[in-house]
Amino acid sequence: MADQTTTVAELRELMRQFIDDREWNQFHSPKNLAMAAVAEAAELMEHFLWMDHEESRQLLLDPRKHEEVCDEIADIFGVCLALCNALNLDLSDLFRHKMSKNVLKYPVDLARGKYKLD
């Protein structure tokens, strides 16, 4: 199933079923899931620690590293799905809403090619 053919709803249901089957809802408070998101992000960061920009771009050429990084990204996304399920939030709506704020905050003519606005 590729991004082009998979809905967010399908992925949320996959995560919901995984959690339900293991009876983990008792552990999945919004607080714990928010903390899990940070922990998973830290695990992803470890793969890139102390690398320069070019090394970080080349990391995934190693098949083992590729799988490890992909697993961490999937873990982060899974926790985000679980958090949206726990809080009954629509991920697509909240992402579109945030992107509309970003468009206003970072206008193309001021932000193009810059990491920081003057």
Using brief descriptors, characterize the structure shown.
globular, Helix Hairpins, mainly alpha, 118 residues
Summary?
The chain has 118 residues and is mostly helical.
Description:
This protein has a single domain (8-90), classed as Helix Hairpins. It is mostly helical and 118 residues long. It has helices at 8-22, 30-48, 53-58, 63-87, 91-105, 108-111. The mean pLDDT is 96. The longest helix is centred in the middle third of the chain and has 25 residues, at 63-87.
> CA-to-CA gap between the ends?
43 Å
Q: What percent of the residues sit in helical stretches (DSSP H or I)?
A: over 70%
CATH topology: Helix Hairpins
Radius of gyration from the CA trace?
17 Å
Give the overall silhouette.
Answer: globular
Largest sheet report: none
Q: Whole-number average pLDDT?
A: 96
Low-confidence stretches: none
